[in-house]
Design a protein that fits this description.
The complex is a heterodimer of chains A (297) and B (273).
Chain A: E1 14-15, H1 20-45, E2 47-51, E3 54-57, H2 61-68, H3 70-100, H4 107-116, H5 123-133, H6 140-147, H7 159-187, H8 191-199, H9 204-215, H10 217-232, H11 236-241, H12 253-263, H13 267-294
Antiparallel strand pairs in A: 2-3
Helix pairs in contact in A: 1-13, 2-13, 3-7, 3-10, 7-10, 10-13, 12-13
Chain B: H1 12-34, H2 38-43, H3 55-62, H4 64-97, E1 98-99, H5 103-112, H6 118-131, H7 138-162, H8 167-174, H9 179-190, H10 192-208, H11 211-215, H12 224-233, H13 239-266
Helix pairs in contact in B: 1-13, 3-13, 4-7, 4-10, 4-12, 7-10, 10-13, 12-13
The chains are: A mainly alpha (297), B mainly alpha (273).
Chain lengths: 297, 273
Amino acid sequence: MTEVGEEPRADLKRRNNRAWWLVLPVVVSVAFTAVIPLMTVVNFSVQDVFTPSDRIFVGLEWFRSITRDPEVRSAFVRTLLFSAQVLLLEIPLGVALAVCMPRRGVWVSVALVLVALPLLIPWNVVGTIWQIFARGDIGLGGWAVNHVPGVDFNYTLDSTDAWITVLVMDVWHWTPLVALLAYAGLRSIPEPYFQAAQIDAASAWATFRHIQLPRLRGVLTIAILLRFMDSFMIYTEPFVVTGGGPGNATSFLSILLSKIAVGQFDLGPAGAFSLLYFLFVQILCYVFFTVLTRSGR
Amino acid sequence: MARHTGRRLPWARTVFWLYAATLMVPILWMFLMSIRPNEDILGSFSLVPQRVTFDNYATFFTRSAWYSSYLNSIVYTSLNAVMSLVVALPAAYAFSRFRFAGDRHLFFWLLTNRMAPPAVFLLPFFQIYQHVGLFDTHLGVAIAHMLFNVPLAVWILEGFMSGIPREIDETAAIDGYSLPRFFVRIFLPMIRSAIGVTLFFCFMFSWVELLIARTITSVNAKPIAATMTRTVSAAGVDWALLAAAGVLTIVPGAIVIWFVRNYIAKGFTMGRV
């Protein structure tokens, strides 16, 4: 069976540069909120700021010192590892969940609302929920782990436990996004595809592999990109739960960055750090975007 | 067109409801905390509350710091969802229908704005919004949140619009419809579900965002999430009140998703995304 992805008909689009007028409102509104702050950060990154009026140009000095900083390097590896684990867990789990979701009757609405609930909780509230839920003394989650398998679990003291808590929290929080996107993608597959599969007596797995999965490419591109950027820049939730600790165990790039920027007020290094961070996420997203939209064409 | 389910494995449903139940456990735990007095929560572990009280909710609705920041969040979130939709609609139409100089680069550039690490970018935000007089206003927060919601809205809408055949536009043009009239009278009703889904996602991402909203507000437009962090830093955390506020922050989102549930179920990717 061949893949049944629908070919985009980009070549049929009319060439018309007046379409710029239609995108102008978007460009203006985003530029106001994006470009000016970006230029300010670039400004920070090449200067040593003592006071707003007393600053000297230092060129690429901050960029050099940031890339050599061992603390930044280990946070970078840690964040990359976290994002990889998040993608490996959430994408398959979300797709599996979408396949299992009911698709008819009154239960569809109930299922959708239940699954979407974690997404609608403000991020610091998510942190607060898990901060207490994972506590061994007064939280159900921590208490259950301590008492049922009898493992000694304490996320404020043990770095592995802290990592697991943050990871489980992220899976709890964000798998629903992948599931909703995948579910919506599955619903858009027309009936005849399944009839054809039935005539071929395709197994459930074969139907999934050759009909459902290829049709999910578009939504999964969105899901992977969104999950990568947001997990690589995760800040609020681990900040509330662990504050980056114990030690440096959950000190991700964003937490380290805000320590430098807000805690120490070192605007130069923080600016350089931000730009490198921003650039890295962009490059990786561009690679994902290109690979995912080109494959299967 | 009839939407089909595909072949279902017999245990699929069980797996799903088990997962959904697990998902609810931390939220239920927060709810249970919200109906207990604070001393009981810290006193001892218990599955069922020994004493049930609704005082925490009463406190929330009688102290203006709490309920007014709750209203602030609802106001700027709704404002943001509408504004993002309005600017994204023509742009998404342009991306789905025309090729123009730099279109692909522009599309990717829009997406990159979601990727700016907030810590350092927040400083200029504070300065700019104060400078233009949007500091601590609902409109200010709504505009700031367009940074990440407009690109997402364009992305979602473009996917839906590309699924609608271009012949419809051409037929309407032959029938004498101008572009704006065609867009409002024919095209918009056709993408109703896309609008529902877009509004939901804009509402969601604006509602849950804390860092930007907190930076550019102080009192008049302060978000509920920021009010909650103040309680954390105060001496002795009032977990019960925090839990009650937490439960209430889920309510508006739950209402919104209830309204758009059918649109999401109808399918997202009518064309390519």
